[in-house]
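so my prof wants the structure for this chain in the tokens format not the other one, which i didnt know existed until like an hour ago. anyway here's the sequence
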Amino acid sequence: MYITAFAATDESRSTSFSSFLRRRDPLLWIVGVIVLCAVALMLIQIAILLASSVKVGLLLDQGGLTIANFRTVLTHRLFLPTLWNTVLLGIGSVVVMLCFAVPFAWLYTRTNLPAKSALLVLMTVNIAIPSFLVALGYIFLFNPSNGLGNELVRSMLGNNSPLFNIYSIGWMIALQGLALASPAFFMIVPTFQAIDVSLEEAAAVSGVRRVTAALKIVIPLAAPAILATATYYFIIAIEMFDYPGMLGLPVRKFVISTWIYQFIYPADNNVPSYGEAAALGVFTALAAVVLGAAYLWCTRQASRYVVVTGKRRTQHNVPLSAFGKTVAWITIGAYSTFSLIIPLLMLVWASLIPYLQIPSLQAFSRITFTAYREAFTELPKLLINNITILLTVPTISVAFAACIAWISTRTHFYGRRGLD
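here's what i got, hopefully its the right format
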């Protein structure tokens, strides 16, 4: 029996800050410069946010410091409803996300689900589709005034009142949760892959059903990773603008992100309230810091769930029955239909007809490609902007992230936990 152990300690693998300064390796100095630039950019943004929150008017206007902006936000009639909507959106989105991400990750890593590569492709494609396009597709479908779904119900039942209203917190939760399930899936998969299958085999020998073993062994062992994923995406959920902006702003149903937008771009053409927006941003940043600390705590609990086993053997997947495979693929198909196929079909249909109308022979006779011809005339300059962003933003982000990760995990630099 072989016991897996790490021979190298942190001291032997890491680099102290003093030794880092003594080295003349250009690559190390480049890493240091990149980290300093990233820290400087973050500190500049924080400083501007804090300074704006205690100023009335523009940041460079004359005048003393004040806490009036915080008082205005806290006493505003929209503060408590907005806070409630934000918390509800965050919790609801995470619940919907986990309902799909965890089972899909388990199916992909621990079972003999057929055509697993198709599941991987579907989850990857779902990440590639911008959230605002999904929201736009559902607006075309369930807009209470002229959405195709509501028009179809009216024509069938003769009911004048709309059956569906896309402009609600419930639809924001459902669609945002579906959108976050795909990236969460990729965060949870490595954890399930790392859990030794011999634990489930021992449970099976003892007469424990495979599903029961998954619920009582695999899921608890993966609990720190699942909890960390939930905490991380709760932060993302309360900061996202796509769904709240497109489904909440038209009916003035605010969350924190859209309320900040409303302060800066008021609907009634009043003067922008930069101080109030900054004060609200400070509250949001403080909440993100607390949740970020909770996320780091969750990730550091993973060592408590380490299992010492024998030599790692070939992974034997949990055999699914024919019924189980059918249910699994029906669920995957339903997820893909509601998160991807329906909104894309609505966008294609809306782009081919002069105005929204229920598909019919008459509607098909009105199909035109005028919208595409007009779009192609604007395409060259849009492509330049998009390609520039696609090349620069991911490159800079990955460079910052990789260098900061190296400093925080591979050195003894004082303050590396703060970087993390």
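also thought this was worth mentioning. The chain is about 70% helix and 0% strand.
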